[in-house]
Amino acid sequence: MGFDSGTSQQALQICEGNVERAVECLLSGNISAGGTTANSGVTNNSSQLSLVQSDVSQYSNPLGRSACTAIALTLAYNCIGQVHYASPESFIDSTLLTRSINDGIKLYSDLRDNNSSGVEHSSVEDILAACSGRGNTVISSLKLFPNSPRQGVLSNSSSNQHMGLEALLTQCQLDSSESYIAVVITKTPETVLVILPTQRAASNTNAKFILIDSHPRPQQLAPHFPTGSYALFHPSLSSLVASLREIFPVTELGDGVPELMQMMYNSFDVYPFQLSRG
């Protein structure tokens, strides 16, 4: 696949011998050439961040290795239904993470059993369509914003910032009158969830910007280095984006690679949700 032996060995070590997870880390750019963890160049003030962690991750169950999208959608429902009535810190805990991961893996497994396509990683669109067809009221109660998914590109160039994480998430905030929204972010092959206060709610000094992830990140997000699933609470959107850029670093392919291919390797999709009121 073009990775040297040192980089491959480092990926296997980080992923505790899990070959599939190691491949995902390599392809997502989380391990840079030479066997070092990729660095986004963006730093966070760790004293302003708080972590909630579960010992359970999607890799705790052999059926869960590719279930991150189903897990993220399950987490979106479990969080967005409560966040309008209670502070996120009061209910986003290790119990919620563990329950959502187990429920998300079950959802993924059930959908796989009824799908003969052989595709291992299900997209948000696939899961929403399948749940709607099977009468799954949990996932079907999530309402996707118009003009979604919203496609972006990770880049270190200022010319592409209008397609970057901060620009797209800011637009999601502006497009809702709710106090909080759930945003599923897919950067192949991984999917995570963020819980965002809208512009109206963000003016509250206690508003939190939350990254929720079913993947362990034992070499990232210092000093927390989460070894299981986790929720990382941030004081601002820029702080949240710094964490996202750390787990989704820009993949530099070199000057000889066409711009279109560079953009393809660094593309991501944003799916903003709120609860359906109908």
Give an overview in words.
The protein has 278 residues and is an alpha+beta fold. The protein has helices spanning 5-14, 19-28, 68-80, 88-91, 94-113, 124-133, 137-140, 165-174, 199-202, 237-247, 259-265; strands at residues 31-32, 36-37, 50-53, 142-144, 150-153, 180-187, 190-197, 209-213, 230-234, 267-275. The strands form 2 sheets. Strands 3, 4, 5, 6, 7, 8, 9 and 10 form an 8-stranded antiparallel beta sheet that branches. Strands 1-2 form a two-stranded antiparallel ribbon. 42% of the residues are buried.
Main beta sheet: 8 strands, antiparallel
Number of beta-strand segments: 10
Number of helices: 11
What is the arithmetic mean of pLDDT?
Answer: 84
* Residues in β-strands, percent: 15-25%
Shape summary: globular
| Low-pLDDT stretches | 32-37
- The end-to-end span amounts to 48 Å
Gyration radius over CA: 18 Å
Secondary-structure-based class equals: alpha+beta
Query: What is the element string, with H for helices and E for strands?
Result: HHEEEHHHHHEEHEEHEEHHE
